[in-house]
Design brief:
The chain contains 12 helices and 15 strands. The protein has helices at 16-30, 50-64, 79-90, 108-114, 134-142, 195-208, 248-251, 279-290, 296-304, 308-334, 358-369, 395-408, and strands at 37-38, 102-105, 125-129, 157-161, 179-183, 211-215, 241-246, 259-262, 268-270, 276-278, 339-341, 347-351, 371-372, 374-375, 386-390. The strands form 4 sheets. A 7-stranded mixed sheet has the order 2-8-7-6-5-3-4, sandwiched between helices. Strands 11-12-15-14 form a 4-stranded antiparallel sheet. The protein has a two-stranded parallel ribbon with strand order 1-13. Helix 2 (50-64) runs antiparallel to helix 9 (296-304), helix 4 (108-114) packs parallel to helix 5 (134-142) and helix 10 runs parallel beside helix 12. The chain binds pyridoxal-5'-phosphate.
Length: 409
């Protein structure tokens, strides 16, 4: 008999986006002439910028000729991209990260999900609540998480509650976890951490020997000057943090696939025999064993984002979404809703009116405004009573959505 990894049977079925899709298709089947505005799934809608498209065309041409053909690339990523990242995302901001500490990947989902391979299955984990579900599910797969409790949380994981009461900024852990996942700017709440707020976590991690897994997939949306773009802007982070970044929401690479992870050489863990081992060594070994690199075409496209034209085009697209976020935030707040996020973030975290549950408000928006959001309860128990809207639509659809919601209230 084939023995399976029982941890997979302990995962809770992920119904959120399929339930949403089913409700929307039932609604559109019953109302075929209604225009539905989709602000639920966190996918971008603007096309990839011309600089990256041109680079992809050229890369395809390279693959078409024997003199320039590229087969397997370096598992850690091509030097041309790692150097561009080190220069533009770090060195130019005075941050000490070497290109050798950067690992190119096919996106932040894989890396945030796979990083646990190099950490003991005995590690204690803390996540924020609500949370990007990948962090919890991959720890269930690894056997670090315990049983699902009736309150929707799991044994052996510390949930750091983020609600209106604490401004969606979690309190420090109580159980001294070994691994702490932080995602800022946050999905789903849209909250960002200032430099001094993030410094508190670095102090905590250094004094408790914890590892911070810092997901900054939405870094490109930061506009406030006191919000750091990288955790390594804060001293001490090189000794306690891994940073994950993605070109998905920055440059519309959700289909192209490219991201990167920074593992500083100065970051160490301890083996069961008490030996200090650099996590960089382990991650390099893990990646070169299990990963054959992101595609050459994607990496050339990502490189082009760092050219002057690429940078300008990316900024324009981010500003486009930021205008949507600002419009939604303003209109919904004026209409009396409590709206969080939407600044430094493409996500708005809307408190449901009255005592409505997340799903109640989802249904109201769908049936009365023909707008699709994501029920906050799908991101964890503390998401109950909220709904996430994204700014990834067109200006026209966003303005229309704002009009429909405000006229309903
Ligand atoms: N991390 C967070 C917090 C996300 O919201 C997402 C995508 O929605 C990802 C990572 C995945 O990014 P990628 O497309 O690079 O895999």
């Amino acid at each position: 008999m084939i023995k399976i990894n029982d941890n997979f049977t302990r995962l809770s079925a992920s119904y959120l986006f399929s339930d949403i899709a089913r409700k929307v298709s039932e609604f559109t089947a019953a109302h075929p002439d209604t225009s539905v505005i989709r602000m639920g799934i966190g996918d971008v809608t603007r096309p990839i910028c011309p600089a990256a498209i041109d680079a992809m065309h050229q890369a395809v041409e390279h693959e078409a000729r024997s003199e320039t053909f590229c087969g397997y690339g370096p598992e850690q990523g091509y030097g041309f991209l790692r150097q561009a990242i080190a220069e533009h995302d770090y060195r130019q901001h005075g941050i000490d990260i070497d290109s050798d500490e950067i690992f190119i990947s096919d996106g932040a989902k894989s890396d945030t999900g796979n990083i646990g391979d190099i950490l003991s299955t005995g590690c204690k984990v803390a996540v924020t609540d609500p949370v990007y579900p990948v962090y919890v599910d991959t720890n269930v797969m690894a056997g670090r998480a315990g049983a699902l409790r009736p309150d929707g949380r799991r044994d052996n994981i510390e949930y750091l509650t983020c609600t209106e009461d604490n401004g969606f900024i979690p309190d420090l852990p109580r159980t001294s976890p070994d691994i702490i996942y932080l995602c800022y700017p946050n999905n789903p709440t849209g909250t960002a951490l200032t430099r001094s707020q993030l410094a508190v976590w670095i102090d905590y991690a250094l004094s408790h020997g914890s590892l911070l897994l810092f997901d900054s997939a939405y870094e490109a949306y930061i506009t406030d000057s006191d919000v750091p773009h990288s955790i390594y802007e804060i001293s001490g982070a090189r000794e306690c943090a891994i940073e994950f970044r993605s070109f998905s929401k920055t440059a519309g690479f959700t289909g192209v696939r490219c991201g990167y992870t920074v593992v500083p050489r100065s970051l160490t863990g301890i083996s069961s025999s008490g030996e200090r081992i650099p996590l960089h060594t382990l991650w390099l070994r893990r990646q070169s064993t299990k990963f054959n690199g992101a595609s050459y075409i994607s990496q050339r496209a990502a490189e082009a984002l760092y050219t002057p034209q690429g940078r300008k085009q990316v900024t324009d697209t981010i500003s486009y979404y930021a205008e949507n976020a600002a419009l939604l935030r303003q209109s919904l707040s004026n209409a009396g809703l409590s709206v969080y996020g939407g600044i430094n973030s493409p996500y708005l975290w809307v408190k449901t009116p009255g005592a409505a549950s997340s799903w109640d408000f989802f249904n109201t928006l769908l049936h009365r405004c023909h707008i699709v959001g994501t029920p906050g309860s799908g991101f964890g128990p503390s998401g109950e009573g909220y709904l996430r809207l994204t700014a990834f639509s067109s200006h026209e659809a966003t303005a229309e959505a704002a009009r429909r919601i405000t006229s309903m209230l």
